[in-house]
Structures are given as structure tokens and as C-alpha cells.
Amino acid sequence: MGAVFYREMKAYFSSLLAWSLMAAFLAVFGFFLCLGISEYANLSQNAMQGGFPCNVNVYFVPSIIYILSFLLMFFVPLMTMRTFAEDKNSGMLELLFTYPLSDWNIVLGKFFGVMPIILILLALSTSGILFVGKYCTIEWGVVFSGYLGLILFSCAIAATGIFAASITSSQLTAASLNYAIVIGLWLLFYLDQNGAAYASHIGKLSFISHMDFFAKGVICSQDVIYFAAGAVFFIYLAVCCLESRKWRN
């Protein structure tokens, strides 16, 4: 697994696409961060005129967490689409099968290979919150909870992307399938809000439902289990896709 992890890391950091995606992610986040700061400043000013303080941990930090989750939902599939699709087109996947590696080693190596890129992006994004923290009293427990949720959320999306890439040799198809799954799980939230009883239970599978508590500074075990189980489930499906070559043979 270590060899696959090292190869994936080297491929990402030597790829112009990866650096471009990282730059684009930070640029878009910076834009929304400026909008968030401006909006919070207006809310704070209006609240002070009314004699009520505007809590930064209620009105600003959760909005930043939601913005980051939304951006991750669109950028992570672009980072994972090449994991297996590129190897299939280049013939490298067949070469990997000749190595003394299990299918689990290959899939986990690729999964852990993409996660450091995401962690770097999340670490850089904290600079915006640190900037606001110079002027406001931020409860860092809320920030920790939010970023823990973002990491777990990223694991689930990355695992979904690796599964999507494992069933096709087209990077575009892999990204599209990942978007379909992730956006579908995201939109289930509206069933939870507006649906019947059975639809409400289905809506509990939504990403928004399980990010909500993290963004508010609450770490709930069922939310942790949800994202962890989702990541394990899609990693297992990716392993099954690799093992399917044995069934065909």
C-alpha cells in the first residue's frame, strides 16, 4: 500500500492539473470568504444598533464550514477522477496487478494518496478564520468540530470518487458519476424537510443533515459513523470492481 500511496502523491504533486485545482479552490474560497466577512460585518452592525451582539460562532463560522463543504463537493471529484481511469488507459493498472499487492492495498493506497491534498487545502483555508479571529472572539471548539466534519465529509466524497473511477476508463465519466452520487445524497435533505414519513427517513442519508451539527460545534457519534461508514462502503465497492476481473476470468 505504501508504494501505491507514494506513487499517487508523486503523481499529484507533479501534475499541473492538481496545482491548478488547488489554486482554483483557494481562489473561489477566498472570494466567498470576503463575501462572508462583509455579510457578517453588516449583520454585526445592524445587531449592535438594535442592542444585541452578533455572535461570530453562530453567524460566521458555520457559514464558512458550509461554503467549504460545498466547494469540496465540486473539487474532490476532479481530484479523484484520474485514480483508476488514468491507470486503465495507460496500462499501469495491469502492471499493478502483477505486484504482490492485494486489491485492498491498491484501493487504500489511492484513497490515502488523495487525502493529503485535501488536508492541505483545508489547512490553508483556516487562514481566513485566523484572520477573523484577530478581531473577534472565536470558539475554537466550534472550528475544530466543523473541520472534523469537513475531513470526514472529504473522506466520503474521495471514496465515492475512487469507486466511480474504478468502474470506467474515462475520467470525465468518473467525475460525472461522482457528482451524481454526491449531489444526489446532498439533495436528499429536501426529502427530510418536506417529505412524508418514509421520505423523512431517506432524507436522513443526506450529507447536509450530517454536516449540520458539525458546523454548529456539536460532534455527534451518528454523524461520525455515517461518514466513516460511507467511506468504507464505497471503498469496498471499488475493491469489488477490481476483483470482478477474477470473476470474468
Which key features would you list for this structure?
249 residues, mainly alpha
- How much of the sequence is in beta strands? under 5%
Largest sheet: none
Number of helices: 13
What is the domain total for the residues? 1
Task: Report the strand count.
Answer: 0
Average pLDDT, all residues: 82
C-alpha Rg (nearest Å)? 20 Å
Structural class: mainly alpha
Q: Low-confidence parts, pLDDT < 50 over ≥5 residues?
A: none
What would you note in describing this structure?
The mean pLDDT is 82. This protein has one domain. It has helices at residues 2-13, 16-49, 56-59, 61-80, 82-90, 92-98, 103-133, 140-166, 171-187, 189-194, 197-203, 207-215, 221-248. Helix 8 packs parallel to helix 13. The protein is an all-alpha fold and 249 residues long. It is elongated. The two termini are 25 Å apart.
Summarize this structure briefly:
By secondary structure, this protein is mostly helical.
Topology of this structure?
Elements: H1 2-13, H2 16-49, H3 56-59, H4 61-80, H5 82-90, H6 92-98, H7 103-133, H8 140-166, H9 171-187, H10 189-194, H11 197-203, H12 207-215, H13 221-248
Helix pairs in contact: 1-7, 2-4, 2-7, 4-7, 4-8, 4-9, 7-8, 7-13, 8-9, 8-12, 8-13, 12-13
